[in-house]
Design brief:
With 357 residues, the chain is an alpha/beta fold. Helices cover 40% and strands 17% of the residues. The strands form two sheets. A seven-stranded mixed sheet has the order 2-8-7-6-5-3-4, sandwiched between helices. Strands 1-11-12-10-9 form a five-stranded mixed sheet. The longest helix has 21 residues, at 262-282. Bound molecules: 4'-deoxy-4'-aminopyridoxal-5'-phosphate (PMP).
């Protein structure tokens, strides 16, 4: 081990770098929107870029206008909101604000890997609870684990990435009510099934909702996310926020997006395409180890009879999210444009034909 490596924190030394697959082929791997930027936004962007003053100076560190617009959208106060560089940064703030050396967070498995990774980066440890066979959240087990493990934070994701299912309302309420710790409710894909628990933040001061402009708003490139919660918990998260965290253009674009109604139609179109892919593939369920799972988000979890099915899809020019370990027969495919989705359906049908009985 080199001297420099030795000087790195113990957890970091053992860690692999977070890598994203290189982009080749149709990009169906990161749950981005298939819709291009609107002409209205493009025109405004050109405007903003020619006003030199906007970018010469630091952004509004408190994102006041954006928080006010979001507060109006959700019928809350701006003190209920915190803007971050993607919801990724919000996950970091949660772990940074609440974890001390050795503290635990409880995370679903399978789910978004950043909850555990960020906990380790913030001196904590992650304990996983397995989702049921059909990927439902096992409420009793989770609550029992909360009592035993005494985590600082319980992470919940609805609809869950990569399984696509949402946590039923009654289960979610019990989990939030009885967890006995901070509950981080990730609704990154909430817009695709009208999942929104903002009204709960008044009742549960220990809950934070994680939202993003990356998925339904089709703005993954601006890296804008936000938290909704009681002013007390928002204030705590704000203490670990570096100044000027969200850039000027990101704030402006997010603010503009909130005034544009077209994203609602886009969500409907994405959900319709998702259901079309699901129906087209569902007929193969149970055949040669194949299974497509129902989804309430903008992606589908698909299981194959073969190992590493992502490779055959990539060879056909379709880049999907592939997994290792226990999930090595699975891929997660983002709902793309209709022509991309047609190609995906055709290629998968061929793969099933090719697979051994
Ligand atoms: N939560 C979940 C469940 C996600 O899938 C993602 C993106 N993959 C994020 C949060 C982070 O999204 P962003 O940082 O772009 O807001």
């Amino acid at each position: 081990m080199s001297r420099v490596e030795e000087l790195a924190r113990r957890e970091i030394r053992r860690m692999e770098n977070y890598r994203v697959q290189p982009v080749t082929g149709e990009k169906l791997d990161a749950n981005e929107s298939p819709f291009p930027l609107s002409d209205g936004l493009k025109a405004r962007l050109a405007d903003w870029l020619t006003k030199e003053e906007d970018l010469r100076v630091y952004p509004d560190t408190d994102c006041v206008e954006l928080r006010e617009a979001l507060a109006e959208k959700y019928g809350v106060k701006k003190e209920n909101l915190l803007c971050t560089v993607g919801s990724d940064q919000l996950i970091d703030f949660l772990n940074r604000a609440f974890l001390e050396e050795g503290d635990r967070v409880l995370v679903p498995e399978p789910s978004f890997s950043m909850y555990a990774l960020s906990a380790v980066l913030n001196h904590g440890q992650a304990e996983a609870f397995s989702l049921d066979e059909d990927y439902a959240y096992p409420v009793e087990e989770i609550l029992e684990q909360c009592c035993r493990v005494r985590p600082k934070i319980l992470y919940l994701c609805t609809p869950n990435n990569p399984t696509g299912n949402r946590i039923p309302e009654a289960d979610l309420r019990r989990l939030v009510k009885e967890a006995g710790c901070i509950v981080a409710l990730d609704e990154a894909y909430g817009e695709f099934c009208k999942e929104d628990h903002t009204s709960w933040i008044r009742e549960f001061p220990h809950m934070v909702i994680l939202k993003t402009f990356s998925k339904a708003y089709g703005l993954a490139g601006i890296r804008a996310g936000y938290a909704l919660g009681d002013p007390e918990i928002i204030g705590i998260l704000d203490r670990v926020r570096p100044p000027y965290n969200l850039g000027t253009l990101s704030q402006k674009i997010a603010l503009f997006a909130l005034t544009q109604p077209e994203y609602k139609e886009q969500i409907e179109a994405i959900c319709k395409e998702r259901d079309r892919i699901y129906e087209a593939l569902k007929i193969y369920n149970g055949k040669k180890g194949f299974y497509v799972y129902p989804s309430e988000a903008n992606f589908l979890l698909i299981k194959f009879g073969r190992e590493n099915p992502g490779q055959a899809l990539l060879a056909a020019g379709l880049l999907v999210r592939a997994y290792g370990g226990k999930m090595s027969r699975f891929v997660r495919a983002t709902v793309g444009r209709p022509d991309q989705n047609d190609r995906l359906i055709r290629r998968i049908a061929r793969m099933i034909e090719e697979d051994e009985e």
